[in-house]
Every structure is written in C-alpha cells, then in structure tokens.
Amino acid sequence: MIEVQHLTKIFSDGTRALDDVSLSIPDGQFVCIIGLSGAGKSTFMRCLNRLNDPSAGQILIEGQDIAFAQGRELRRLRRRIGFVFQQFNLVERLSAYENVLSGRLGYYGRIPGVLGLYSAADKQLALQALHRVGLEEKTHTVASNLSGGQKQRVAIARALVQQPKVMLADEPTASIDPKLSGVIMDLLKSFTRDGITVIVNIHVLELARDYAERILGFNKGKLIFDGPPSALSPAEVERIYAGSVADL
Ligand code: ADP
To answer: Which ligand 1 atom sits nearest the alpha carbon of residue 15?
Structure first.
C-alpha cells in the first residue's frame, strides 16, 4: 500500500510542480498517470522513489515514510522500488545479463564491481528475470546491440530483480516502436499478479484507457482526476488536458 499525503514539490526556481497531492494505492494495482507535458507526472513518480526530494508531505510505502528518509533507511526503502526510464538507462557496453544483475546492487553494502562477487542466488534471479521478459536468448548480448524494445525489456528485468513492491515506469513506451507499446504494457501489467504495484506515466491516452485499472490525471501539479478508465468521459479528458503547455 502506498499512501501519499499532501505531497508538494516546489523547485528552487519557484515552480510548483506538485501541489498538495493525496491518494492511496493498494498493492497490486495497475495505475496510469496522464496529463499535459509539464503537469507534474514525472515529478510525482520521481518523488515516490526520491529521485526528487519532496518539499512537503508524506509518502508512506508499507507504512514507512520515504519522503524525508535519509542514508541507510532511504537505500533500504528504495531498493524495493523499481524504476523504468524512458531512455532505458542501461550500461551500453555491458551484456543484458550484467545490466539485469546490477539491479541487485542495492542489496550490497559495497559495489560488487565484477560479476564474480554477485551471489549465485542473484545470478539465478537475473536469469529468471531475463526469461520472464522473454529475452533469454539475448543474455550475453551487449546492450548496445539490442533494439529499443529489447533494451526496455532488459531495463524492466533489472527493475524486477530488485524484488520490488512497487514498479514505477516513466514513459516506458516513448522511445520504442509504437507497435511494441502493447508488449511493454502487458509485461508491466503482468507483475501486478505477483502483488507488485505498477505505476506508469504514459502520454498515449489510448494506452492508459486500454491497460489501466485506475487513471490519475494531473493538471498544473494538482491531481484532478482519480478513477477507472470507464469514468474518463470526454469532459474529464478535456479538463485534464486543459491549458496549453506554455501556461505551465
Ligand atoms: P510532466 O512529467 O507532466 O511533463 P514534470 O513533472 O516533468 O511534468 O514537470 C512539472 C513542472 O516542474 C514543469 O513546470 C517543469 O518545467 C518543472 N520542473 C521539472 N523539473 C524541474 C527542475 N529540476 N527544476 C525546475 N523546474 C522543474
């Protein structure tokens, strides 16, 4: 369970990217976030794993507040939150397997550095994750030789070996062939069957409608829609997408 209370983020230049956002998300829900560019979607996701520091509010994950956690406690909370980036963020010269294994780094006090220092159990987890995303035949291929869709699946496998409670994906389909968007969304959604909460920031409204159990609509830093796709009427869509990018 994720509980967000009065989350506010004001950047140092005064931009109010998130304005008093409150909501709770039960385990295993598949949530899509929509809104105009600049609405605060990425900032919301980035606060959930502390890539951004909130200005105020609470973020309870399994009852523990990550909003202002520091040091060891922050590392411990963060390793149960997988993050999938639009641009994959793989180490291009490393193999798919090595990239996936690096998802276990948060469980080590120091960086294993070379492959040999990862435990046998971690290596097994990495192979299982590659299998889960359908890339076992690419295990030893260097990331630079993978297609965009394959890179994103490696990145998802890397998030999966963290054994996350929560998986956050920030525009995971934006840098890949649109024909493959469904493959990535299906894969992300499949993790909810294991009780993982999956939150996807998605700019394609149709994908949100087709896949989400619940849609969050942001406008100018405020959460202005929170409901199932069936409640997303044309009037609600207009309200969420109201205002031009230049206004924000
Ligand atoms: P979205 O993901 O919906 O496109 P963002 O969360 O990226 O929106 O941005 C929300 C607002 O915060 C925008 O006005 C954006 O310009 C601003 N913003 C994002 N990151 C920073 C930053 N590091 N410093 C200042 N303003 C930022």
So the answer is: 26
